[in-house]
Structure formats: C-alpha cells, structure tokens
Amino acid sequence: MNLRKATEIGKCLSNETRVQIMEWLKKPEINFPPHETLKHFNDGVCVTYIQEKAGLSQSTISTYLTNMEKCGLLISTRHGKWSYLKRNEKTIKEYINFII
C-alpha cells in the first residue's frame, strides 16, 4: 500500500455511516437478512439491505458504496439485477499494516 491509497481509504472512513457499513459487513449474518434468492452471504449483502439499514437515500448510499469500492474497501458481485457487497479483507489488512 502506498500513501495515496491509504489517504483515499482514510477519506472514505471519515464518515460515520461508511464506518458503520464496514462494521455491519464484518458480521453480515447478524446485521442483515439473507437475500431471498441467494440465502447466503458468500458474495456479500444486497445493496438494498444496506440502504434500508442506513436509512439514507438510495443516491447517497450508492455514492458512499461506489467510493468505498473504488478505494478497495468493498468487493462488488452482481447476480442478475442485484448487487452484493462484502468487505475486502486483504485491503483492510494492508491499510492497518500501513498506518501502524
């Protein structure tokens, strides 16, 4: 990890809702229902569920999640019309190691 990438991640994490999302996604089975189609969390959590839990507009959550994905904190997977997100544990570990 380089300074620029670490700074981008730091900016993403400078928002309380984005930090909450990372916390929720750490244990998705506790914080979200499984999607009725997949019935598991292997590919993450349906974006709709994240938006509902956060209680913010779809456009706001979409912007947050897109930025979090761009800086490498989240991994996106599509199944049909549904997008699922999970934490990118590799990037998170690299970030922690960089700042300590």
From TrEMBL:
Domain of life of the organism encoding this protein: Bacteria
Gene Ontology MF: a single term: DNA-binding transcription factor activity
Gene3D superfamilies: Winged helix-like DNA-binding domain superfamily/Winged helix DNA-binding domain (1.10.10.10)
Key words, A-Z: DNA-binding, Transcription, Transcription regulation
Residue intervals of the HTH arsR-type domain: 1-100
InterPro entries: ArsR-like_HTH (IPR011991), HTH_ArsR_DNA-bd_dom (IPR001845), HTH_MetalResp_TranReg (IPR051081), WH-like_DNA-bd_sf (IPR036388), WH_DNA-bd_sf (IPR036390)
PANTHER family: TRANSCRIPTIONAL REGULATOR, ARSR FAMILY (PTHR33154), TRANSCRIPTIONAL REPRESSOR SDPR (PTHR33154:SF33)
Protein known as: Transcriptional regulator, ArsR family
Native source organism of the sequence: Salegentibacter echinorum
